[in-house]
Amino acid sequence: xxxxAETQTETLLEVNNIEVIYNHVILVLKGVSLKVxxxxxxxxxxGNGAGKTTTLKAVSNLLASERGExxxxxxxxxxxxxxxxxxxxxxxxxxxxxxxxRHCFEHLTVEENLLTGAYTxxxxxxxxxxxxxxxxxxxxxxxxxxxxxxxxxxxxxxxMVAIGRALMSRPETILLDEPSMGLAPQLVEQIxxxxxxxxxxxxxxxxxxxxxxxxxxxxxxxxxxxxxxxxVMDGPAQELRENPDVKEFYLGMSDEGRKSFRDVRSYRRRxxxxx
Amino acid sequence: MPDQLIYAMEVFLNGLMAGVxxxxxxxxxxxxxxxxxxxxxxxGVMALFAALTLVGIMEGQVxxxxxxxxxxxxxxxxxGWHLPALVSILLTMAVMVxxxxxxxxxxxxxxxxxxxxxxxxxTIGLAYFMEGFGDIMWGADIKKLDxxxxxxxxxxxxxxxxxxxxxxxxxxxxxxVATVIAAILVIALVIFSQYTKQGRAMRAxxxxxxxxxxxxxxxxFIWVMVWSLAGFVALVAGIMWGTKSGVQFSLSLIALxxxxxxxxxxxxxxxxxxxxGLLIGxxxxxxxxxxxxxxxxxxxxxxxxxxxxxxxxxxxxxxFGEKIIExx
Lengths: 275, 328
Prior knowledge:
The structure holds 2 protein chains of 2 kinds.
Chain A: H1 4-7, E1 11-22, E2 26-37, E3 41-45, H2 52-60, E4 68-77, E5 80-81, H3 87-93, E6 95-98, H4 110-116, H5 125-138, H6 140-144, H7 155-167, E7 173-177, H8 185-202, E8 205-210, H9 213-219, E9 222-227, E10 230-236, H10 237-242, H11 244-249, E11 253-254, E12 257-258, H12 266-274
Helix pairs in contact in A: 4-7
Chain B: H1 3-36, H2 43-59, H3 65-72, H4 85-106, H5 116-138, H6 155-165, H7 173-195, H8 197-207, H9 209-214, H10 219-245, H11 254-265, H12 270-290, H13 303-314
Helix pairs in contact in B: 1-7, 1-8, 1-10, 1-11, 1-12, 2-4, 2-5, 2-10, 4-10, 7-8, 7-10, 8-10, 11-12, 11-13
Domain ABC transporter (chain A): 13-253
Keywords (chain A): Amino-acid transport, ATP-binding, Nucleotide-binding, Transport
InterPro entries (chain A): AAA+_ATPase, ABC_transporter-like_ATP-bd, BCAA_Transport_ATP-bd_LivF, P-loop_NTPase
């Protein structure tokens, strides 16, 4: 884990109080602010519909194709305003999103999927081949399946393809949306291990949206908890993990040990965060 | 050899040649459908428009001359030049690229993420608009198109077959040229979509728009590229049909002949468009030859559709269509 002093040295991505509206009427984010330090793993946590995916899409600017727009606030990458750029420009700047639910190109082979990741680069064949090797190094399973159509690979393999494809763009920051979705616990562990080693040995910065609070807080350095389109709590992962409210509401634990969710005192959360 | 068999062989060959022309039109549909999921009803009109533009440029016709003359009381019709065929074809291609850009900019950019049926309706609108636009631009009269392609009976085939069977086959030179060109076109398109970066991006866009966006592929660029390719295919089809039967309104109706071809070959397969075209071409000619006389003829009008219907029932994705991948 990075020490606190180092994380504060350089902020790569800064989201300031953004509001996002879909279809001109549906207000989804009501003022979200966050900072992503270079070389860190930052987690966005929260339940369904909290606004995690929307936040990531606001950054990568995939919102536009879904009739969403940032109506207030600003998004800065390396101090530069990026919210009017196309996803294409952002990928060139080193920000790439791995979408929720994998989104592989089903009819392309695994290797072709990876190659599409290098679309924005003007790199030569040798360089791209070397990067392919690098990806296969992290995901040996993909090398075995390189000639299979991605649509016929398993959920875990597709998640690997999606991450590998993003790596092929040689990014600086990877926006990783719900990597655990629909995967067996062991696979989730495996994917997060790879994310961690990519972060530590290759220096990739991650902004991670995850419902699985438990896993995410074990691997992330810093966490933001979203609820209803607002950040309700943030702090170093370690602190969040030990916070009694997080324990109770997100990790299903309390001072008296594990509890049934029926007994969870939801009124307390309301009182505290929504007033 | 019995006479009937020899005639049937000739019919077969002519069917193949007709099939190539169907395939050329179907190819344009496949390209756009594959990359954007749009069934482009306007593909036939694009062929007509391309042929009209080609004739206009070659003959040095002034575009919108009727309109200009009516508005300003002038009498201009021609620039007074005759351009060589190759130059005209290149200029026409430039017009088709411009058209591709305009169509995307003015129509489809505003319809991102809409239902397929809405996109389809938009192409119907586009088809009728372009039909009228072509008329205003180049005039509605039937035009002769001659880019120097060989025409008329191929004497070599005629003489050889006469030597073999005592009966010379009538094969049009133009059909042979069309076959060769279509073959080259298909091979080039397959190589492009399978082995180049832009081709791969095109297939990626076809699979998943959002994911393509997320890796930095510009949908706009890909769509303009695909519409330009379809415009090029339309131009080739327009040249072939236009040379054969003159450039006229009925050219746009060949789009309807391409429909059964697509159902046979599969909407998403480039080789499928070709095989489908050949099957329909040969099928309808042989059917007309063998069964037609028994039931009063004119079977060519409906044969293709009945065949397509059978395919829809028994193999909805067509012969070569992409298997619908469904994981459970």
